[in-house]
Design goal:
The chain is an alpha+beta fold and about 200 residues long. The chain is built from five helices and eleven strands; from the N terminus they run ααββββαβαβββββαβ. This is PsbP C-terminal domain-containing protein.
């Protein structure tokens, strides 16, 4: 198995169960959740020589956990995502979770593009009951990227992959009714900068 396949399967094995379990609760978003694409807070971290920043809505919370950045719409959701065991993890009603991972490009073959990587991940995810819809090429702030809608066992969401010469940023976002959070996810992803 190639190094890239091992990395993509490892990421899917680590991150998809967290989001799947985290989003098993019912989601009835309030007006402030669905209309809150105003991003007044900024998260910043340096990891492996890369400075990562993104903006997110006021009142949301972030946490760094084992080389991942978690973003949630409440402290209760964040605490659940970051600390509960996977077999008992649920997010409170209206909960939302996002996981951001920085992947150094030197750990990936230079010829791989974001669309090809998500395609490989989709093949592995399907065996776990996670279905990716058509993968779409995107560009955000001059970064090559790809995104796909994802259907988990009890949740829906999106996966984004942004790539530059020195890094890739993988973003997983999910909720039991993802449509309530789709605009906010897109707004947050549009602000991601890694230097």
């Amino acid at each position: 198995m190639s190094q890239l396949k091992r990395i993509s399967f490892l990421l899917m094995a680590i991150l998809l169960p967290v989001l799947l379990a985290a989003c098993s609760g019912e989601n009835t978003a309030t007006e402030s959740e669905t209309s809150q694409t105003q991003l007044s807070e900024t998260f910043s971290v340096s990891e492996g020589g890369i400075e990562l920043t993104f903006n997110y809505p006021q009142g949301w919370v972030t946490q760094e956990v084992e080389e991942m950045i978690l973003l949630a719409n409440s402290q209760e959701s964040l605490d659940t995502i970051s600390s509960a065991s996977l077999d008992s993890l649920t997010v409170p009603e209206g909960g939302y979770g996002m996981i951001v991972v920085i992947l150094p490009s030197d750990e990936m073959p230079p010829e791989i593009n974001p669309t090809d990587l998500l395609t490989m991940m989709a093949e592995g995810a399907a065996s776990e009951g996670v279905m990716m819809e058509a993968i779409e090429e995107i560009e955000i702030d001059e970064q090559m990227g790809a995104k796909a809608d994802v259907t988990f066992l009890e949740a829906t969401g999106e996966i984004y992959l942004l790539k530059s010469n020195e890094y890739s940023v993988m973003v997983y976002a999910a909720a039991s009714d993802y449509a309530d959070f789709e605009d906010t996810t897109q707004a947050v992803v549009n602000t991601i900068k890694a230097q």
